[in-house]
Amino acid sequence: MIVTATLSTGISRVTNGLSESVSLIEDVLNIEHVDWETILLVGDHEFYTTPEGPVPNSQFRVSVRPSLGIAALNHTDHDRADLPNVNSYNPIHLGRPAELIFSGTTGMVFPPGSAITIESAYVALIEWLQTFQRPACVQWRPSSPNYPRWPTRDS
To answer: Per its UniProt entry, which superkingdom is the organism in (predicted)?
Structure first.
């Protein structure tokens, strides 16, 4: 297993094997994601080794605020006809959506209800490393700029 990561710090990392990849996940979950998200890709090879690819079919977008004890996840899998793009979902609402950046490029933040505990995010990401599939241990809801209205940091 190889994980290709673009961290919110602007650094890219590639790990080989479960042990290195779990260590990467732990590092990601300890970063205060204020301005940028982290992108994670898992597979049998490193992704984006050239501008032509290889290009992944699935990815995780991760935003974490250790100071608040919350995280949010977005999973995209183009091989899934049912809900190819989803966000973590927690009906308890652990935090304000503006606290979890979805896209540093656009300033979009995760919609309300996306915040989960960092422990839940950890369990989900480890399950993903083991299965290469969307984790079943957290709830998901469709991700779309229209469902629900996506706020930005300025709204």
So the answer is: Bacteria
